[in-house]
Amino acid sequence: MSDAKNQGRLTSGCACGAVRYETASDFEFSFQCHCRKCQRATGTGHAPAFAVDISDTRLEGSIRYYAHAADSGARTNTGFCPECGSPIVSSTERFPDRIYLLAATLDDASVFKPQFAVFANEAQPWDRAPGNLEA
Fold this sequence. Notes:
7-stranded mixed β-sheet, about 5% helix, about 35% strand
């Protein structure tokens, strides 16, 4: 993911390899989310993620989803590998054609470049968004 679009296919998977995905979609945007839901789902201070068109993305393997209400009230689903627990994907009923993939799952995570931070006001004091990101 360089500049505003990715270069070709992105491949990824969970820690144990039971879940894999590939996307040919140019990502819509990339971000760091500091909401409490993402903090809890990742076990860190934020979730680095990017949005892609679900129709251009192939998920392989079993994913277990946890459904909950977002702060907006919309239903949100967070998907994990049932074998190793790695968080992989999330979606929301507000945008049914888009999924959010976690950057750390990328085979080459160094290509991830966040464009902005969301819920920066919920960031933990030990994990603030870099100053160069629009909040």
